[in-house]
Structures are given as C-alpha cells and as structure tokens.
Amino acid sequence: MKIILLGPPGAGKGTQAKFISERYFIPHISTGDIFRKNISEKTSLGVEAKKYLDEGKLVPDEITISMMKNRLAVDDCKKGFLLDGFPRTVTQAKALDLFLSNTGGRIDVALLIDVPKDLILNRITGRRVCPSCGASYHIKFNPPKVEGKCDVCHNDIVQRKDDTEATVKSRLDVYDKQTEPLIDYYEAQDVLSTVNGTGEIDQVFQNIKDVLKDIHK
Ligand code: AP5
Ligand code: MG
Predict the structure, then answer these.
(1) CB environment 176-190: b (16+ within 10 A), e (fewer)
(2) How many domains does the chain divide into?
(3) Known binding site for AMP: residues?
(4) For 11, which of 7, 18, 67, 203 could close a Cys bridge (C-beta 3.0–4.6 Å)?
C-alpha cells in the first residue's frame, strides 16, 4: 500500500504512522524526522534545513523533492510506504505522482486526519520527544511511564524546538496556504479519505483501520 498522511501540525500524523507502519509492514517515512536527524548530525542538508524548521517555514521544494526521490528509491519502499509530512505543496505532490508513474505506480490513499485548530495548540505544546530514539509523548494525553523519561531508551525527553506557540502559529499559517490545497488535489484524484482525528489515540487508529480495510484487500 502507498499511503499519504495529510493533516495540520499536531493532528497526530506521527503518532498514527507508527501504528499503521507496524500493522501493514510498510516503512514510515517522515520528512520532518529526516530533516531533524540531519540537523542533529550537522550534515550539509541539516545545516540548510535548520533555518526553515526553526522558523516554522517549509524547506524549499527542490531540496525536499530530491531528498524524497532518494528515499523512495530504497528497496524497502518496493512493497509500499507511508508518507508523513510529504507532500506538503502541490509542486511536491506533482513530483511524487511523476516519480511513481515512472514505475507504473500511484498513491492508494491520501488519509486526512481531521482535527480542529483549537485542539492543535494543546497537542503541540504538550508534546515531548526522545532526542535519541524519536519516540513521541504528550504530557497529558500520552505520558511516558516515568515522568520526563523515554519508555524505550530511558533518556530525558525534550520539547521540539519548533513547538513554541509563535512557531506553531507560523506552521499553521503555512499549512493553510501551502498544504491545505492538497485536499482538493487528492479529492480530484479520488483517493482522499478523511478520518476524524479528535478522539483518543486508539479511537483514531480504529477510524484509520476502518478506512484501510477497504483498500488493503
Ligand atoms: P513535521 O515534523 O512534519 O511537523 P508537522 O507537520 O508540523 O507535524 P507534527 O510532527 O508537529 O505533528 P503530527 O501530526 O506528527 O502530530 P503528533 O503525532 O506528533 O515537520 C517539521 C518541519 O519540517 C516543518 O515545519 C518544515 O520546516 C519541515 N518539513 C517537513 N516536511 C516538509 C516538506 N514536505 N516540505 C518542506 N518542509 C518540510 O501529535 C502531536 C501531539 O499530540 C503529541 O504529543 C501526541 O502524543 C498528541 N496526540 C496525537 N494524537 C492524539 C490524540 N488522538 N489525542 C490526544 N493527543 C494526541
Ligand atoms: Mg510529526
């Protein structure tokens, strides 16, 4: 299955992607995670991307598309993939379509996790992540077993640098202007499915499975 996860920052894309990837045995590819890894390793891509992430702006299409073409060419994507945070502009969506059509493939479903804006700020400002393994938590809705420590590797969990209120505002603005048009784009291709993302984490995953069972036959 080739799945795209759409939704505003904080909608729960990363949280649900982990479950989907484990259940359907497809790699979870998050552009945000790839950029953050490059930033922590201080690669040239990371140095370039950092300026954009810190301000809540999109990394230019050229850089992002080229990075994703390399990632999608890796063997583990042959059986399908789950894209989290890509595409984020119509230009990126067209580049992805072209890339897939070269191998006779196409997207099976673009899953929109629908969450109203007033819930988003709480979700994002309460998020904590493990800098070592990338596991993600929420201080209230999904707390770790031991306060402040990652369940998986027991490191201290931290707040993402772009999870401040000011940067979240900029990210939401970018989403409205540059990413929301993708909803119409995938609707026109007849691959858009919208799931209610307001319930508890397990409930949202159930909503997603209900959609995917019709596609994964
Ligand atoms: P990215 O890392 O993709 O960030 P984002 O889209 O802003 O999304 P988030 O990761 O903030 O939210 P999420 O939907 O994954 O929510 P999560 O599951 O963590 O991108 C970061 C930056 O990288 C961008 O700003 C840009 O600069 C750059 N970038 C990335 N892709 C790019 C591209 N294609 N082109 C150009 N630039 C790009 O959940 C959030 C919190 O809520 C967590 O604490 C979680 O525990 C909690 N939660 C989740 N679900 C629920 C629930 N059902 N109930 C209660 N709490 C919940
Ligand atoms: Mg995420």
Answers:
(1) eebbeebbebbeeee
(2) 1
(3) 31, 36, 57-59, 85-88, 92, 160, 171
(4) 7
